[in-house]
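Weekly modeling sync, notes
Attendees: S.R. (lead), two postdocs, one rotation student

Agenda item 3: backlog of single-chain predictions. S.R. asked that every request posted to the team notebook include the full sequence so nobody has to chase files. The rotation student volunteered to paste the first one in as an example of the format we agreed on. Action items at the bottom.

Example entry:
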Amino acid sequence: MAKGKTSVKGLYFDGEQYIIDKTHKRIRIFKRTGTGNRQEALDILDREKLRINEAIEKGISKRRTLADGILKFFDTATHKSIQADITNAKHFARCPGVLELPLDKVHDATLRPYIAMRQKEGIRNSTITRELKLVVRTLNKAARVWRDELTGKPWLECAPPKITMPVDTHKTKNRTKKTYPLSWDEQNRFFSLLHVQLQRMAIVAVNTGKRDQEICGMRWQDEQHLKAINKSVFVVWEDRSKNGEPTVMIPNSLAMKAINAQRGLHSVYVWPSIKGLDCPVYKMRSKAWVKAWKEAGLPSVDEHTTGPHNLRHTCGRRLRAAGVSIETRKDILGHRSGDITTHYSMAEFKELFDAVELITQRNDGIILRSVKAV
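Predicted structure, as returned to the notebook:
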């Protein structure tokens, strides 16, 4: 038979064999039959249709286990901590029966033996929590993203249960530490001791109020230009936001100057790894950060934190001192979630940009020279 489409819709002959590419009851069938005989190919197509009909009629769907879910998660994951998650999965394999649990049977009670095993081994609760987050992400994907190829039903047909994390007593103690908003003089002294890229990141942090990971993971493709007001915003997608909801970064003129200084350094990431790796900076608080903090004479005693979260509080305090309303401050700092740029009107965006511009006015010249110097 000549190469081309046959009279049966969804059955094609490529010159050597028949290929099935057909949608039956909203389920796609794609199969290379391995035969050049038309009748044999039609028989294969009929068997595939029958299989789908029986599955839908009986509601047959493979009951997948936690092991199936974790393997699927690894196959589709692209995040930078994938190797750490693979190591965590090996610990689950040491606890009998955990990986064999059907996804709809994974909850606090069935995970309790695993938590008890790790605690008995002397593992801190914060580490166990990181391990359990792999389970949480797997359950969320199974309920919201992954679908059975045959029936189209989700891997987990019920809402994923809330997994209770063990209390981290070590972290509870650290919560007594207070943030330390910087004065303008302290900021200039501290920033002048940071290396070029870290200084620019700090300038963005203190002028946008965004969190450490929201800044480190910035990508050029997340930039959206608002033609109506000739301003740019950066979308912070849910994989980098603390509350799991997308927000926007509103850069004022100082933050945008620092960001623009990075253009051309990497095709994907705004803040590429300074070690030459094809990935973004992992975190802002590094040995260089801590050293500069101490040399600037900033408090490093037990009652104060020393990380970049202080810059977020510095931004919030300055916005409040400038008379910016609490609702606008929440929008700028990222407490409000919604449909990204469609969540705000152009008038609201202009209000946000006007607000963040207010905190550039004190010691403006010093900070601009600092950006220019790098």
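Discussion: group reviewed the output briefly. Confidence is low (pLDDT under 50) at residues 1-6, 363-374.
Action items: rotation student to repeat for the remaining queue; S.R. to check formatting next week.
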